[in-house]
Amino acid sequence: MKGLVDSAGDRGERDDATLVARVSRAVFGYLEHVSSDHAGTSAYSEVTGV
Known about the structure:
The protein has helices at residues 2-10, 16-34, 43-48. By secondary structure, the chain is mainly α. The chain has one domain (2-48).
């Protein structure tokens, strides 16, 4: 996550809400991908309860 945030800062991004949303999608998308062998579970829902 640090790399994603640092890269955004290097490009001059300053919209915190947009950055949080994009990094969250990237992280949870990755977690979903690597945990795909657990059919029917969602990494996002496991962490957030949603």
